[in-house]
Write a structure and sequence with these properties.
ATP hydrolysis activity, alpha/beta
Amino acid sequence: MLDVRGLSLSLGEFSLDGVDLTVDDGEYFIILGPTGAGKTILLETIAGIYAPASGTISLDGRDITRTDPKDRGIGMVYQDYMLFPHLTVEENIGFGLLQRKTEPDRIRELVSETADLLGIGHLLDRTPGTLSGGEQQRAAAIARALVLRPRVLLLDEPLSALDAVTRDRLRRELKAVHRATGTTVVHITHHFEDIFALADRVAVMQDGRIAQTGTPDEVFRKPATEFVAAFTGMENVFYGVSRVRDGEATIDLGAITLRTVTAVEGDVCVASGPRR
């Protein structure tokens, strides 16, 4: 289990402000939020690229807040791939294993196995610049992280800047890889389709904080704040006063009155949006 508690950090215009987050073993967890909300910094801090000003990061009960990135058991894939252009796909995928001084035969075995899982086994002799579009380069970058058998795989917008058909195909591959490996995944996205296709749970970030965490259905059907309601597509927000009697709430919106089942009393926001 990945457990983040009270994580704070300031980097210029980006910051984290007391982030609390728990990701269960084998979970596919998606983080959603506007540009500048702190999503990428959160992943980079979990990976060990930045040291937090305060707070802790634990993995399987072990405090890794100050642990060297290579010793955390965490892999990260950026949206711009960061593949070595002068190495073949096979050499790129196997680079981390080579640094670990893994036996050459074992490297070839693991690279082949991981490349086949992501559908790029036939491209191992190619260099990144010869791969078509972004799909195959992304698959190679994911394979390079996955071949190290990380406890947690961090994906920074892996499906951005792809056409709809390619994005859907790579989304299916990510789902298949997750099922096959059981790796815990934390994935940043701007696409709601990714959430409903992949996520066990989702967190919405706002201004360096977690605004809400829950299943996709909970977050999109029962937003916890006005911000989450607006960000997830609730187009109509009304303000009123709720009064509860015998388990039923009467909400006075001024021009109209609503009746619903809730325990919430006092000033409220009522939101409605498209059904999903």
